[in-house]
Amino acid sequence: MLPLISAKPQNLSPPLSFHFPLFPSSPTKPLSFHPPLKYTLRLRIRSIDAAQPYDYESHLRTQHLKSQSLKIAILGFGNFGQFLAKTLSRQGHTLLAYSRTKYTDIAKSLGVTFYNNPHDLFESHPEVVILCTSILSTEKVLQTLPFQRLKRSTLIVDVLSVKEFAKNILLKYLPVEFDILCTHPMFGPESGKNSWDGLPFVYDKVRIGNEEDRISRVERFLDVFAKEGCRMVEMTCAEHDRHAAGSQFVTHTMGRVLERFGLESSPISTKGYGTLLDLVENTSGDSFELYYGLFMYNKNALEQLERLDMAFEAIKKELFGKLHHVYRKQLFGNADEGAEERPKVQKLLHNGAPPSADAVKPETS
Ligand SMILES: NC(=O)c1ccc[n+]([C@@H]2O[C@H](COP(=O)([O-])OP(=O)(O)OC[C@H]3O[C@@H](n4cnc5c(N)ncnc54)[C@H](OP(=O)(O)O)[C@@H]3O)[C@@H](O)[C@H]2O)c1
């Protein structure tokens, strides 16, 4: 009986020769190794490279990841910069960072190369530069960066929580050759600590060149967030600011007000109260500088603050209006019966202070 495959191991010259059975069966019929064989086909492997290594698939995967990975520089390696770096590093991107404070050890633990000098960092030619500096400092930082050391096609991304301001200063200070992507990941180290799944990521492609590699680079960058499950929302910077003042700024304000108020956990906390405690925890980790930046650099913030103030006053008015009604009833309806309760009501109406002589005078309508 003929062997199914015969091989003569020897040096590459002459090449290895294999004998494969050739079946005179129909093309639709699956090959079978059982019937007796009439013909043999001689195949010659002409190159040893034709043989696939055992880890061929994982090699392909690594190659694919490498082709998708970006060289990314983070400027401003504080709270948010480090938070971003964790995910970027896990996704296999090459990370560099610069900050005015030395974060060499933290950077090392996150797989990031830390530079003490922005000139050195820019000479490493990152493909993407992410601005993670505070809202208040970014304009000053932009004016001092040595952009001439970067490649002229570099993509500059910002993550500032206010977008019109960011867009305007980027357009003002960056060389025209650079691409600009304004973004706002609408989550942070607290709200996004376990997962980014379903969390909104807002972006505006402010200026992206027409070349294919520039278009694909911005898509690869956005893919960092899409891959984590973020809800990708493309909108203009102006639209973002309008929405953010009514949601993010109000959230931060309420978190800070409740923190000052001094919320404390209680053994009989309701679900609603738990939500308030979570809100305080979510916002208290952010710097006051960030909050102040939301107020100062979003032109819609002041209006929202005034609306909050008015809403609070309106609620108080409604409550005290009812109280006033009860008070009048006590004064005129049951003048004698309510006598004991009156001082308590008066105290409440005057915020705990003793009422003045005028205030207790009954109205003469
Ligand atoms: N925290 C969040 O949840 C969140 C979410 C989305 C977007 N963002 C945005 O991310 C950016 C960073 O936020 P953050 O949470 O890390 O806190 P932040 O207080 O707003 O910013 C801190 C960062 O700004 C740098 N910085 C401050 N003043 C500087 C100056 N005069 N010169 C140079 N650098 C200066 C700090 O550098 P050093 O550490 O070296 O001092 C640090 O890297 C902000 O633009 C914020 O709006 C934050």
Describe the structure.
- It holds the Pfam family PDH_N.
- It comes from Salix dunnii.
- By secondary structure, this protein is of the alpha/beta class.
- Helix content is 44%, strand content 15%.
- The strands form two sheets. An eight-stranded mixed beta sheet has the order 5-4-3-6-7-8-9-10, with helices on both faces. The chain has a two-stranded antiparallel ribbon with strand order 1-2.
- Strand 6, helix 5 (138-144) and strand 7 (155-158) form a beta-alpha-beta unit.
- The structure holds NADP nicotinamide-adenine-dinucleotide phosphate (NAP).
- NADP nicotinamide-adenine-dinucleotide phosphate binds next to helix 2 and helix 10.
Count of domains: 3
In helices, the fraction of residues equals: 40-55%
Spatial gap, N to C terminus? 123 Å
- Ligands bound to this protein structure: NADP nicotinamide-adenine-dinucleotide phosphate
Question: Count of helices?
Answer: 12
- Stated plainly, the CATH topology of the largest domain is called Rossmann fold
In CATH, what is the class of the largest domain? Answer: Alpha Beta
Rg on CA atoms, Å = 34 Å
Spatially, the strands of the biggest sheet line up as 5-4-3-6-7-8-9-10
Mean pLDDT across every amino acid position? 83
